[in-house]
Amino acid sequence: MADCIFCGIVDGTIPSEKLYEDEMVVAFRDIHAQAPVHVLVIPKEHIPSIQEVEEESGELLARIFSTINRLAKEHGLADRGYRIVNNCGEEGGQTVHHVHFHLLGGRSLTWPPG
């Protein structure tokens, strides 16, 4: 999609701090970090929402979550804990319409904060 910021990151026309990339997924630092570690993991294929993920997407989802596990270990989060977030739709807080997962960690993420 020509106007999708994440598609621009995938094709290299929009700069990002990529932490991982393979033939199916890209992971990069969120420029509006909400935690000391805040990484976005996205499929290279443009899928607007998790609502459009089908049963045939099993391999892609496995790759996304194995990438999240790898990054959690690399950033020292695996033993301490972390949060994985996917926002779906307008009321769910989705602002970029390209499936993405937030990996957050490096501090306590309990609610309420404090």
TrEMBL record:
Source domain of life: Bacteria
Pfam families, A to Z: HIT (PF01230)
Active site: H100 (tele-amp-histidine intermediate)
InterPro entries referenced in this protein's UniProt entry, alphabetically: Histidine_triad_CS, Histidine_triad_HIT, HIT-like, HIT-like_sf
Domain HIT span(s) in chain numbering: 5-114
Species in which this protein is naturally found: Paludifilum halophilum
Gene Ontology MF terms: catalytic activity
Motif range (Histidine triad motif): 98-102
Name of protein: Histidine triad nucleotide-binding protein
